[in-house]
Design the sequence.
């Protein structure tokens, strides 16, 4: 069918549904409702879709659109649930199970007839992680079911007046409900409030008599202090005392009216340092080793562990972005992992994003964004090159979730890419006005061939994990639920390490790398890529700077039709 996706943003779920519906043979286009109702009406008039699907909307569809066309709304709540803050309530009320409902648009919010619904288990994770994983899996299943039922033509959607439906209206989850009482709330309550707002909207709080939003929360087992006191910093996060423990908070966001020139999310310690200046001593570092003992309950973004002949270097950065400092620390951890006696080394986190490349928020907040872009990219290149030059063991990139731009190329530097079936890949840079580096001119054509490499980077469209496997981006699909992914990776990695043919495969890998180096050294690829990127970074008129600022500050930019060819010739 011809399907039009209408969304407030081309976010992770919108991209996944675009990719999955396309895989099922549908012709899919996208229009952004954030540009106002008229682009939606214009897209409907031009495309004349057979079906409109709204994966994520912050505003209502125009009435003339839903009256004249069948429009299906993806609601992140079980049948009968209504209101704009469904997942927030699920986390706040500690619901063990939740659901996604696909319902027909009508005048009252979330009140339309139900075309499909899918339940999911709610693990103790942040709202954005839950949204991109369990909720996303359920949404894809429900949407594909609803689309199939609509195409068949015989299905009658279930009205919410049916006696089997219990209607529950849930009010918007406002900041007064999220507010943390550091004197009274225990650690579990604080964590629940932080996790319920980890990406958006954050928890409004005060630090040094100034209001900031707190983003993300993780428990700490040893550090203690006065409730609300900042205790330490680690890997860009800050540790704050609760009445019965402490929590780590990775990111802070100043209020827009605070006078801060960078009112967007960034590493918490940098925001605290910028706010306190010389008035307050620098927060002490609370270092931990890469290899944490199993009884520790603390947070760090990079860890290493080993099981027999397999090493696991796990990392998890908020939003998948990797700053200069994060890239350098991950490279140091990678070099540490190479000193261990393993035959297989697995890279990747247990859940959620693999990597999205350089850290645009940190770059935007820097005194010289062009210089920070350049430094960040070189740190990312150093990491990717280290992976490519590893010839004494097999390296596996384990993608529990999405990967984009330089993060996707980091994965392709590994010998094998194992990808959860729910992940979305964006192996391109053009939508940020960039040519790209991370040695993609070597790794991408090597895997998919020159023609597919040109198409992937030129069209700049998201692809599903299944399509990634067909193209050669992915070596193994892992059809596991999010909470089961790492266990499945461990089982497969143990099998790979025990393969009697492994020594031959490692030797063949080393020989192939040496042959490729003789044909064209990695240094030449890197030099050519960086020359292109240097010209972009240090050109004040390059579209990258405006696109980066709009992305970080969440202001509309570009066309309301995000699948249109990206502007600019970066060949």
Sequence:
């Amino acid at each position: 069918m011809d399907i039009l996706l209408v969304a407030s943003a081309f976010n992770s779920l919108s991209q996944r549904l675009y990719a999955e519906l396309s895989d099922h043979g549908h012709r899919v286009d996208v229009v952004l409702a954030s540009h106002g109702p008229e682009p939606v009406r214009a897209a409907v008039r031009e495309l004349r879709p057979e079906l409109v699907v709204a994966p994520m909307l912050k505003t209502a569809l125009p009435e003339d659109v839903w009256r004249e066309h069948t429009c299906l709304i993806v609601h992140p709540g079980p049948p009968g649930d209504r209101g704009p803050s469904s997942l927030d309530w699920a986390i706040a009320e500690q619901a063990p199970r939740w659901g996604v409902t696909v319902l027909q648009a009508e005048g009252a919010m979330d009140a339309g007839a139900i075309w499909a619904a899918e339940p999911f288990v709610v693990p103790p994770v942040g709202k954005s992680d839950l949204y991109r994983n369990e909720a996303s899996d359920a949404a894809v299943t429900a949407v594909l079911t609803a689309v199939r039922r609509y195409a068949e033509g015989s299905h009658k959607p279930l009205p919410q007046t049916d006696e089997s439906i219990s209607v529950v209206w849930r009010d918007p989850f406002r900041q007064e409900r999220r507010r943390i009482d550091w004197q009274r709330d225990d650690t579990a309550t604080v964590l629940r409030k932080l996790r319920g707002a980890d990406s958006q909207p954050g928890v409004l709080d005060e630090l040094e008599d100034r209001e900031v939003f707190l983003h993300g929360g993780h428990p700490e087992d040893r550090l203690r202090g006065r409730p609300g006191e900042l205790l330490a910093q680690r890997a860009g996060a800050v540790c704050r005392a609760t009445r019965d423990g402490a929590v780590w908070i990775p990111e802070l966001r100043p209020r827009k009216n605070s006078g801060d020139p960078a009112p967007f999310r960034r590493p918490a310690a940098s925001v605290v340092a910028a706010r306190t200046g010389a008035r307050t001593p620098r927060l002490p570092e609370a270092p931990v080793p890469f290899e944490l003992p199993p009884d520790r309950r603390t947070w760090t973004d990079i860890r290493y562990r080993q099981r027999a002949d397999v090493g696991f270097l796990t990392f998890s950065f908020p939003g998948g972005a990797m700053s200069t400092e994060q890239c350098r620390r991950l490279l140091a951890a990678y070099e540490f992992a190479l000193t261990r006696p393993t035959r297989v080394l697995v890279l990747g986190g247990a859940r959620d994003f693999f990597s999205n490349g350089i850290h645009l928020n940190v770059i935007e907040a820097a005194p010289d964004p062009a210089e920070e872009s350049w430094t960040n990219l070189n740190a990312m290149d150093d990491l990717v090159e280290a992976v490519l030059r590893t010839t004494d063991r097999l390296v596996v990139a384990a993608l529990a979730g999405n990967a984009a731009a330089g993060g996707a190329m980091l994965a392709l530097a590994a010998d094998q890419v194992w990808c959860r079936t729910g992940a979305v890949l964006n192996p391109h840079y053009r939508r940020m006005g960039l040519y790209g580096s991370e040695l993609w001119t070597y790794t991408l054509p090597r895997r998919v061939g020159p023609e597919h490499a040109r198409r992937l980077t030129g069209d700049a469209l998201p692809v599903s994990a299944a399509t990634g496997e067909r193209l050669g981006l992915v070596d193994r699909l892992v059809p596991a639920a999010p909470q089961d992914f790492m266990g499945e990776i461990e089982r497969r990695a143990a099998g790979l390490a025990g393969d009697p043919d492994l020594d031959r495969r490692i030797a063949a890998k080393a020989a192939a790398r040496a042959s490729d180096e003789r044909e064209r050294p990695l240094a030449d690829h890197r030099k050519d890529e960086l020359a292109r990127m240097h010209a972009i970074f240090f050109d004040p008129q390059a579209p990258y700077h405006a696109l980066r600022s709009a992305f970080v500050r969440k202001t509309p930019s570009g066309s309301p039709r995000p699948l249109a060819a990206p502007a600019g010739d970066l060949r």
